[in-house]
């Protein structure tokens, strides 16, 4: 189960929540439209969070993207990924001009 402080890290100004259950939260980045799932892993002591990713809501399947100990680490990873994607998109636009 996600705690209230963990849920607050999934900022609704930055993300749209798609679905929430006891052990995972699915959401979409407003910056890139990439979709994410944070799943709490109950059966291991080494990694507590597993992050899954897909490039659009229309895509059918998620792929595993990252593992972490905390929701904060996961959110930081997503925001870093968003920065990378936005830089690539900007570069592609400048090349196509």
Descriptive overview:
With 97 residues, the protein is α+β, with helices and mostly antiparallel strands. The protein contains two helices and five strands, in the order H-E-E-E-E-E-H. The protein has a five-stranded antiparallel beta sheet with strand order 1-2-3-4-5, covered by helices on one side. The longest helix is centred in the last third of the chain and has 26 residues. The radius of gyration is 14 Å and the shape is elongated.
Number of strands: 5
Principal-axis shape: elongated
Strand content: 25-35%
Q: Largest sheet, if any?
A: 5 strands, antiparallel
- Rg (C-alpha, Å): 14 Å
Average pLDDT confidence is 93
> Would you identify the regions where 5 or more consecutive residues have pLDDT less than 50?
none
Brief overview:
The protein has helices at about 5-10, 70-95, and strands at about 15-20, 25-30, 35-40, 50-55, 65-70. The chain is an alpha+beta fold. The longest helix has 26 residues, at about 70-95.
